[in-house]
Amino acid sequence: MPKYFCFLIFILFFSHRTQAQKGLNLKWESEFSYTQELPARWSANAKAAFRQTFFEPSETGTTSTYNFDFSEIQTFLTYETWNTIKLSVGYNFRLAELLENPLEKEHRIMQQLAFVTYPEGIRLSHRFRTEQRFQEEGFINRWRYRLSFEKNLNGTQLDPGEKYLVTSNEILYSFNGNKNEGENRIYIGLGWFFNSTNKLETGFQYRLAGIGNQIENSIFLTTAYYLSGK
Amino acid sequence: MKILFHAILLILLFASVAVGQDKKSEVEITISQQEMPDKAISVLQPLLSNANRVGFYRETTNAEISYECKLKWQGKFFSVEFFEDGSLMDIEQLVPFRTLEKDIKKKSRESLQEIFSRFKIRKTQVQYSSKKLADEDIITAVIKENYENLTLRYELVINGKSKESSGTFEILLDEIGGFLKQKEVIRLPLDNVIY
After folding, report:
1. Contact yes or no for B186/A196 (Cβ under 8 A)
2. Which of A178, A185, A228, B109 is 20 to 30 A from residue A139's alpha carbon, by CA?
3. Are A168 and B122 inside 8 Å of each other by CB?
4. CA of B23: how far to CAs of A121, B28, B103, in Å?
5. A60-111, pLDDT tens digit by residue?
6. Do residue B20 and residue A84 have CB atoms under 8 angstroms apart?
7. Running DSSP on this structure, what letter comes out for residue B148?
C-alpha cells in the first residue's frame, strides 16, 4: 500500500520537474456538490465549480498573474442498475473568462458508467465518461477513464469525524474532425468525512495536457464540499 | 464579479454544514494493544503469539462499547470481538464462500433467493461462539478446528437487488445456511469519485 502512494507522489513531482522549463499553470479549483437520493434507485447531482489562475507560464518560467478562468454548473441524473454499477447522463454549462468581455460559453452533454469494488477494505472506483463539448470555436468529443483509490485513515471503516485519503489517475482523449490530443490527470487528496451527508476534500492535481500537440503542465489546488440528501 | 462569486461559494459551504449535521451512531477507531481490556488480551494470547497483521479497534454503537482484534494467523484471517468488559463475543473467520460445505452453500443461496431477485456475495465469514465453553476454550477449539461444542453461523456481505431496493446487506445465516437476520450496510456517498 505505501508503495502505491510513493509511486503516485513520485509521478506527480517527477512529471512536474521534467517539464518545469516550460513553465507551469498554478490554479485553484473549488467545487460545491449536492447529491439527492431519489426513489427506485435513482439519484441526482448538481455541482458548481469555479477555477482561478494564480501563476502561468511565461518566457522567463512561471509568472504571477490572476485570472478567474470560469464558473460552471453541472447536473447528472443517475440510475443504479446492479452491483454498484451506476449509469448517468449529464449536462454542463460553463462561463469562461469571467473578467473579460465577451464571455465564452460552453455546453456539454455527458454519458457515464461508474462502478465500485472493495478489495481488502479499500474502495476502488472506476468511471468511464463520454462528453460532447459545444464551444464557440467548434465541437469536441472527449472520452475519459478515471480510476480512484480511497482508504480511510483510522480503523477498518470510515466513520463520521474521520479522515480518508484519495488518489486517482484519469486519462482523457479529445478529438474532432481536425485534431486530437490526450491528457493525464493525477490527484492526491485528503478528505474529512464529517457525517453521512457532509464531507470536505482538498488535494493537489497534476495535469499534463495537450499530449500529441502542445504540452501544457498545470498544478491545481482543489477544494470540494460534498453534501448528500437522503 | 470575483468577490460576488467568492461570497456565493462561502454561503453555500456554510449553509451545507448547517443543514447536514447529524448524530454519530457507530464509530470505530484504531487503538493500541494497551488500550484493550486485559481480559481480552489474555484470551487472545494463543492467537497473538504467532499472528501478523494485528489490529485493535474500539467500536461505539449508541453508547455501547465493544472491542475487536483483527489478525492473520497461519494464513487465516480472524476477527475476534469482545464485550466492553473483555469477555468474548464471537470469533469470525474470513473464508471464500466456495469452500463451505455443499449443503450449506445450497441452503444459503436458497435463503438469499427468497429475499433478493439478484445477489452477489462479496464476503463470507464463519462465526464461532459458545455459551457452554470458557472464552479461552473457544479460542482453543477454533485453533484446533474442533467445532463440536461451538455454535456456527455464517455472516455474508452481499450486494443485493429486490423489487423494493438495491444495496449492500449483511446477512446472518444459521449453521445450515437458514436465514436469521439481515442488516443494510450504509454505503458511503460516492459523489467525490463519480461526479
Report:
1. yes
2. A185
3. no
4. 24, 15, 43
5. 888 898 989 999 999 999 998 877 899 999 999 999 876 666 778 999 999 9
6. no
7. T
Q: How far is B57 from chain A (nearest CA, A)?
A: 6
pLDDT digits over A21-67, tens only?
468 899 999 999 999 989 888 999 999 999 999 999 888 888 898 98
What is the rounded CA–CA span in Å between residue A15 and residue A172? 17
Q: Which three cell numbers stand for residue B195?
A: 461526479
Pairing assessment for the beta strands A216-229 and A25-37 based on DSSP bridges: parallel
> Which chain A residues contact residue B26 at CB under 8 A?
159
Q: How far apart, in Å, are the Cα atoms of A155 and each of A148, B28, B51, B59? A: 20, 6, 19, 9
Is residue A137 within 8 Å of A176, Cβ to Cβ? no
Residues 6 or more apart whose Cβ sits within 8 Å of residue B25: B61, B62
pTM above 0.80, yes or no: no
**pLDDT surpassing 90 at residue A156:** no
Give dist(CA A66, CA B168) in Å, integer. 47
How far apart (Å, rounded) are the C-alpha atoms in residues A31 and A48?
6
- A68 with B159: Cβ contact below 8 A: no
Q: How many residues does chain A have?
A: 230
Q: Amino acid identity, residue A201?
A: E
pLDDT bucket at A18, cuts 50 / 70 / 90: very low
CB B161 within 8 A of CB B119: yes
In the block, which residue shows the cell 507560464?
Answer: A57
Whether ipTM > 0.85 holds is no
Give the closest residue to B68 by CA, choosing from B94, B40, B93. B40
CB atoms within 10 A of CB A50: 20
